[in-house]
Amino acid sequence: MAKKDNKKNKDSKKARLMEKNAKAQKKAEAKNKKLSKKQGDDDLEDNVNLEEVISALAKEQENLEKVIVETVGRPSRRRDTAMVGCNNAGKKELYMFGGEVTDKDGLVHFYNDLHVYNADNDTWKKYLSKTSPSPRSSHAMVYHPSGIILLHGGEFSSPKQTTFHHFSDTWMLDTATKEWSRVDVRQAPPSRSGHRMTYWKNYIILHGGFNDLGTSTTYLNDVWLFDITTYKWQQVEFPTNHDVPEARSGHSLIANEEGAILYGGYCKVKAGRGLQKGKTLVDTWTLKMKSDPKGVRWERRRKQGFQPSPRVGCSMQYHKGRGILFGGVYDYEETEESLDSEFYNTLLSYNSDTNRWYNLSLRSPRKVKQAAVKEKSRDEDLEDILNEILAKANLNDNEPSSETPESASAETSKLKEDENEAGDYVYSSQLPHPRFNATTAVLGDQLYIFGGLFEKGEHEFNLYSFYSIDLAKLDGVKVFFEDLSELETFREEDEDDEDEDEYDDDDEEDGESEDDEMDTANNGLEVESPRINQNSSDDVEMEDEEAEIPDPTPWLPIPKPFESLRSFYVRTGAEFLKWAISQNIDARGKQLKTKSFELSEERWWERREAIRIEEDNLEEAGVTSVVERDGAKGKRR
To answer: Per its UniProt record, what InterPro entries does this chain match (predicted)?
Structure first.
């Protein structure tokens, strides 16, 4: 009987080993096929002329109507697209162009459609026209307050990505008509993708990127300026001995008063004869602009205070004097044969004036407001106070006005943002799933996040999702749509495979010694411990450095912890109105009220980081709100 049981166990064990070997062989074949595609050894690979393909697509596009407009529920799944926020003529819109997607057969398709999201009525529209740029991905776009969007460069490839084409063309989009026009110039930046653009006054600034020639990849560090008054590109020439940033792509480039701030990025450096290795950059530079491009100079910024851990696949977006950064990935070498990665979903802000980084954390999930009537009453009280101040200074409008901050004054739209939230979406108290290469844009006080990539082993997942985060409140993530089904299905299958592998390993002979087990554990610790130590030291340093944030205007009113912009203006509007009167001699009534709100908003954002630290300390102590006592009436409010 025992012999039969042993034979039965051996047979079942043999069957499991055969199944395991079959799975391993299947994975190996898939890996070799993927590798052969990268090296161009696949007999079925497409040998196509990309120039002819692009030309054929352009001819096909000429048969379209001038502009085809279609209302859609959402953009289709894609990656490496470009998105910018536009607040023009009272409209808040997001513009998304191009991108690529990989189908089930592993073939890549490129887009050249334009999607416009109207934040006021929560609708997407798709635009196609005969003048649209060619399909592409990894291009750069920037919105200029004059009402135009400039697009440059990008890449296109064969369906199996063995041959690449990089664009060097420049396109301009009129945000009023949604029509594209190509900018024909003799001198323009060379072909590239992965570059970045921002603007300063009448100049649009372009920096960096890379060009893949198939046999080698060249990273760039040149700076180009596009003058929106002359529609001409000009390269900035730096002195021979002038220190400039390393060549890079996928970095951050945001505007500031002096010109632009550059941070991070990725490049490849030599690692021996004919070899290259990736390098993650964490340096920060200021591009100091001048009206004469000959006077433009780079200046390196010293690190101080808390610093983000190294990462790539994330680019800052400008928001009221600071940069907002989400997500990213860092590849670290676990062993000599394999490479592992750490993915992030952290939200960081960079104050370009103080050169300091801050971690941003979400507050408790947003709740339905119950004090709307009280707020309206306080708004009416503020309006009476403002009118009284204007009357004493003889600065009322010529015609009587019954406007209040709740009606048609210039600050109304901003104050009403607290009340007019779209109602049927889910709000999450957790930041979105970790990812890199997410497409982000800032519109008003909202950070929008579209798509992104996540990897597990050799599998890559194109996350199909769209979120927004209120940067003023940080009270949750608004989920417009989210589809992580591919990732969840893979996780379930992966867990099943791991369970089977563990079961098979238990049946095999125990040949490992305790020393081997200790070596395995130590290897794991060698990988993890540097990052643990680094993070812990960063946290200590952050606490020391964040304790003091200089106040450039200490005589102005200071926001209180947990006080919204609306409440701050209601409390301090009279003081800012007096300041506006002293600064604007020729203004009257409504103009002065508008100016007072702008001054109040500027002050609120100026002290936002310092107040956030106070709020974090209070929340750690269990305080989530502050109740103010009205001494005059003996009541709390």
So the answer is: DUF4110 (IPR025183), Kelch-typ_b-propeller (IPR015915), Kelch_domain_protein (IPR052588)
